[in-house]
Amino acid sequence: MTPDDRIYAYSAVLMGSPILLKLFEHDESLASRIFRLIKLQEITFTVNRPHSDIMAINHAAGRDPVTVSAPVFELIRRAKAISCLPDSSFNFTIGPLVKRWKIGFSGHSIPAAEDLQALLALTHPQDVILDESARSVFLQKAGMEIDLGAIAKGYIADVVRDALREAQVENALINLGGNVQTLGAGAEGAWGIGLKKPFADADTLIGVIGVTGKSVVTSGVYERYFELDGHCYHHILDPKTGYPLDNELLSVTIISQDSIDGDIWTTLLYGMGVEKSLAYLPQIPHIEAIFVTRDGQIIVSSQRQFTFTPLDDSYQITT
Ligand code: ADP
Ligand code: MG
Ligand code: MG
């Protein structure tokens, strides 16, 4: 029996992404329970369908505060706090810009500069008024839109991990389209998470990240983008300019305990770039990062919670 023979893989397409669940026991009913749980979370947090708690808030922008459930309020409170950090490249009120660009969806186009200026005025996180006692969320200006796309998958990955733990599962992996969360060590002493080669097909890897009970989140410019006149417009927008963030990075991977941190920090470090990130990371020891740059480097910040095995000689590895 090879180690992988002991692993049962279940898959589904949810939240517009392929979802993979790996268990060490054949348990169809647990797998469907987990997929139902993810679906429920999706219904709560998405902006890609007409009805969700988030859409209710967006529809009432400039008009009414909307009372939401405690978990939704908590996630929004967290998203606002990160968005309001000085120089933060994470902005959960980026919705109007995301909707205008439609990057990764049909109908994408480059907005006129003056359109971007007008939309930027609708993306101030301080204009989201939270009332703790009423548990309500109010977008002060008509046209404002919350988008939790940069944090929700991480949050949901942690919800799944907690549900698996509660079901006494000790060894499992959930992959929510790029957000991986694990319990235990897999079949070979650590779960091996592939680091994709930018712009290659999904199975081409440039390295493998080994983790035990940790989260691995990658955000790459090659995940959703469109090309026009030789320029690549990808889906992580710069809240200052309204254009896709432009620097030396092709992807940022975060290894952390909680996947929500991985999701948040991929966006924050993407905005900081390699040099600033490497200077900043020692202050947050629970967050570790792997950067892949346009000029073919893989830069590993530290390796306390994971191992990294390079698979592609054409990349220069810096540790
Ligand atoms: P993915 O997991 O799809 O790579 P990320 O976690 O990097 O995504 O989040 C990207 C998504 O977050 C975008 O598709 C958009 O919905 C939203 N978004 C884009 N730019 C920002 C930003 N600067 N801050 C917060 N959310 C953003
Ligand atoms: Mg993210
Ligand atoms: Mg993400």
UniProtKB/TrEMBL annotation:
Family according to the record: Belongs to the ApbE family.
One example GO MF annotation: transferase activity
InterPro entries for the chain: ApbE, ApbE-like_sf
Species lineage: Bacteria, Pseudomonadati, Pseudomonadota, Gammaproteobacteria, Enterobacterales
Secretion signal, residue range per the UniProt entry: none
Name assigned to this protein: FAD:protein FMN transferase
PANTHER family, sorted: FAD:PROTEIN FMN TRANSFERASE (PTHR30040:SF2), THIAMINE BIOSYNTHESIS LIPOPROTEIN APBE (PTHR30040)
Assigned EC number: 2.7.1.180
Needed cofactors: Mg(2+)
